[in-house]
Amino acid sequence: MNVGDPAEMPVFDMEIDDQYDPVKWLREREKSKESEYKFVKTLRDQSELCRQRAKIHNGVDLAVPYGQTHQDGHGLEAFDWFAPFRIPEKIQHVLVYIHGGYWRALDLPESSHWATAVTDFGAIFVGLAYRLAPYQPIQTMPQRICHGLQTVFEHSYKKISQKTKNTPNIHMHLVGHSAGAQLIIESVVHAIQLSKQQPEQPQQQQKEEQGDYRWLNSVRSLILLSGIYDLRPIISTSVNQALKLENLHQAWQISPLRLFAEPDTTIRIPTSIRWLIAWAQFDSPAIIGQSSQLINFMRDYYGNEGDKSECKSGSCDGRVISFCVTNEDHFSSIEKLHGGLKQSNFFKKMLQFISVDSEDV
Predict the structure, then answer these.
(1) Neighbours of 269 (CB within 10 A)
(2) Less Cβ crowding at N or C end of the chain, within 10 Å?
(3) Is there a contact between 251 and 176 (Cβ–Cβ < 8 Å)?
(4) How far apart are CA 91 and CA 303, in angstroms?
(5) Please, what is the angle between helix 141-164 and helix 179-197, to 10°?
(6) pLDDT value of position 281
(7) For residue 33, is it within any domain?
(8) How far apart are CA 224 and CA 321, in angstroms?
(9) Residue 4: inside a domain, yes or no?
(10) Out of 4-13, 30-39, 254-263, 280-289, which region has the weakest mean confidence (pLDDT)?
(11) Helix, strand and coil in the chain, % to nearest 5
(12) What pLDDT digit, counting tens, does each position of 16-25 carry?
């Protein structure tokens, strides 16, 4: 978009709002708010089915807290943890899902809708929720999610040790949809910054945040679906009523696109982390364009690192893979994960993508 004056106050733009309203671009359903209610109910019902099934073999820990857990409807800081019937001894893949909802909607009850599909393939599934806007500023969400991810890592390490009687070898994969994709990248960035700044922090702050970046060493991939990577257009939409971003500069400072469009040498995302950047065929052109922009900037970024990596049509030296989820829209691409391989091309792609990570282990 034309950024104009970075300090310019946001003005609502109906055309931009329509471009970022997923309901208006749904493929085969009524384009109304009723579709949103049905979508939320579907995710909640699917999540409950997964929880009930996991309880049969005592393979689930529900609402594990990492912070605010008051049932006020504004987002729990907690996660559901699902284990397969038998946890592998060699490598333990842990998929952590961070929901979308434009930073202001959905919660823990809707976050575990595809847990069974994951555990059926021998991996651990975690549905992680977070405090929503405007009850938590979007700028502080990555910090809190970092704490949540460290709690997930510690919980997984303990449970795996108990069940396998071996030292865990955790391979963590972070999966984010829509706003969740932005939060994943920004949480990784926060962890990188925290790991560098920790020794310089006051003792009390060190105590509060100690270890909140250690989970980063276990991350093998970021799996992003229909993400929002440039928040500058969002300030002109109704979403900004909750986010309260004041200008383009403020929006850019929390936009993952900046990491590759204007690289900061102090923030180096580990090259061991691989990226799967996906979108739904019937997402809006604006949301599809967000993924395209990120992919193009990443190809330039990795292609100019001086490591002789050559960016080709589908990847950047194998680090960045792009994928279109055909015949799906913003909602159906997520709903169908519940059915695993039988219903979701995206789920199949994820399994193929993750398996590459274990080939050299």
Answers:
(1) 18
(2) C
(3) no
(4) 31
(5) 80
(6) 98
(7) yes
(8) 10
(9) no
(10) 4-13
(11) 45, 15, 40
(12) 999 999 999 9
Query: Quick one: average pLDDT of 320-341?
Result: 97
Greatest Cα-to-Cα distance within the chain, rounded to the nearest angstrom: 59
Mean pLDDT, rounded, of the chain: 90
Query: What percent of the chain stands above pLDDT 90?
Result: 77
Cis ω before 134 (30° cut-off from 0): yes
**Least confident piece of the model among 123-127, 139-143, 295-299:** 295-299
Distance CA 129, CA 145 (A): 9
Residues 147/215, Cβ–Cβ less than 8 Å: no
Residue 142's alpha-carbon distances to 86, 118, 213, 230, 251, in angstroms, are: 32, 25, 11, 16, 15
Q: CB–CB of 255/192 below 8 Å?
A: no
Contact 147/212 with Cβ under 8 angstroms?
Answer: yes
- The tokens describing 236, both together, are 């002109």
Q: In DSSP terms, which residues pair with 95 in a beta bridge?
A: 125, 173
In a domain, 3, yes or no: no
Total domains present in the chain: 1
CATH assignment of the domain containing 301: 3.40.50.1820
Residue 253 belongs to domain spanning: 14-357
In degrees and rounded to multiples of 5, residue 347 shows phi and psi of: -60, -45
Report the amino acid identity of residue 95: L
Residue 238 CB neighbour total at 10 angstroms = 13
| Distance, CA of 156 to CA of 82 (rounded, Å) | 10
**For the chain, how big is the Rg over CA atoms in Å?**
19
Residue 28 lies in a domain: yes
Helix (H, G, I), strand (E, B) or coil at 200: helix
Backbone angle region of 211, left / alpha / beta, with phi > 0 → left and psi within -120 to 50 → alpha:
left
